[in-house]
UniProtKB/TrEMBL annotation:
This is o-succinylbenzoate synthase. InterPro entries: Enolase-like_C_sf (IPR036849), Enolase-like_N (IPR029017), Enolase_C-like (IPR029065), Mandelate_racemase_C (IPR013342), Mandelate_racemase_N_dom (IPR013341), OSBS/NAAAR (IPR010197). Coiled coil: none annotated. It is an enzyme of class 4 (lyase). It holds the Pfam family MR_MLE_N. SMART domains: MR_MLE. Keywords: Lyase, Magnesium, Metal-binding. Residues 142-235 form the Mandelate racemase/muconate lactonizing enzyme C-terminal domain. CDD domains: NAAAR.
Length: 368
């Protein structure tokens, strides 16, 4: 393929309800889409991070600069644009996995559309639908939390994840377990809010039969997570600390985690995400697909990935209605607790032009 044009479309979409985590509260999805035009096909992707670097070091305005000044010039210079050539061409720009993932995914979408192949087929998916979990934010009170969980269970979600932080952990977990019973698949996510000094406190969560505790300690501190895992029965799952397949291999070897959260954006894209899946699956370590409150443009390719054989736990791949009153693609709808894996070529969806126009704040060409 030959790169002809790359357009960046900044969007701002209201969330149906504020989403509070240990690192902040979000009320809108404020990010950008990339639209890549080549001589044979067009592709779309969504940047996964936020305007402020709170979940990870990347952020919307920084990613735009990195794309414009460093990543796009390198890939525009490629004699043949293929998705396989992208990561090697971008390797001299350190880090910036989420920006690289956005570019790689839009090119992947275009390339697969030029072959008429669905992403799920390309990645090696073995399922036509994937079970859906839901990530429930921190609330002002336990009764409010119980109402939310009850509503999600009534909608059919098959697994509940509670966001936790110091002061909002044992009590909400106990209340949810008591109210909904031992059969509920329940897990928690601390987004790095604790330290090893909290190990005895976190051990109290062992009483509630959790599937896992996600990223309890500092990002990238595999040693501390291994120390913590030795003191907990609850399996530790890493999110923020895993940036590539090599990190994942190290974390598994060190027993820093017993479960792996894969977010394609966090690891530089779907090619590396598949390698992480392969490494974890080969070790018998369960993998699941995380989320970043994506619109349909980011959700569609995550569903394709989540259909790989090693994704043995439900992901944070919830229906569009969990996030938005109106999605910018045809909405993903929950059916019997599952979401369908897209089957159309590429990522399988496109923005609805009218809706996209209404949610667009700004757009410009990053490359012509
Ligand atoms: O840590 O998994 C996380 C959302 C934004 C940033 C980080 C995380 C999350 C979620 C929600 O937990 C996942 C989703 O429903 O998309
Ligand atoms: Mg997480």
């Amino acid at each position: 393929m030959k790169l002809e044009r790359v357009e960046i479309v900044h969007v701002e979409i209201p969330l149906v309800t504020p989403f509070r985590t240990s690192f902040g509260t979000m009320t809108t999805k404020d990010t950008f889409l990339l639209h890549v035009v080549t001589d044979t096909a067009e592709g779309w992707s969504e940047f996964a991070a936020d305007p402020e670097p709170r979940y990870c070091s990347e952020f919307v305005a920084g990613a735009e600069l990195v794309l414009r000044d460093f990543l796009l010039p390198r890939i525009a210079a490629l004699p043949q644009l293929t998705v396989a050539a992208l990561a090697p061409a971008m390797v001299k720009t350190k880090g910036h996995e989420l920006a690289k993932a956005a570019l790689e995914t839009a090119v992947l979408d275009a390339e697969l559309r030029s072959y008429g192949m669905a992403l799920a087929t390309y990645l090696g998916a073995v399922r036509e639908r994937v079970p859906a979990g839901v990530s429930v934010g921190i609330k002002d009170s336990v009764p409010e939390l119980l109402d939310d969980v009850e509503r999600y269970l009534a909608e059919g979600y098959v697994r509940i994840k509670l966001k936790i932080e110091p002061g909002w952990d044992v009590e909400p977990v106990r209340a949810v377990r008591e109210r909904f019973g031992d059969a509920l698949s329940l897990q928690v996510d601390a987004n790095t809010a604790y330290t090893l000094a909290d190990a005895e406190h976190l051990r109290r969560l062992d009483a509630f039969g959790l599937l896992l505790i996600e990223e309890p300690l500092d990002e990238n501190n595999l040693y501390a997570h291994a120390q913590l895992q030795r003191r907990l029965q609850t399996p530790v799952c890493l999110d923020e600390s895993l940036h590539n397949a090599r990190d994942t291999a190290s974390a598994i070897a060190m027993e820093a985690c017993r479960v792996v959260n894969v977010k394609p954006a966090r690891v530089g894209g779907y090619l590396e995400a598949r390698r992480i899946h392969d490494v974890a699956h080969a070790h018998g370590v369960p993998v699941w697909c995380g989320g970043m409150l994506e619109t349909g443009i980011g959700r569609a390719p995550n569903l394709a990935l989540a259909a790989l054989p090693g994704f043995t736990l439900p992901g944070d791949t919830s229906a569009s209605s969990r996030y938005f009153a109106e999605d910018i693609t045809e909405p993903f709808v929950l059916k019997d607790g599952h979401l369908p894996v897209p089957t159309a070529p590429g990522i399988g969806v496109e923005p609805l032009p009218d809706v996209l126009r209404r949610f667009t704040r700004e757009k410009r060409d990053l490359y012509v």
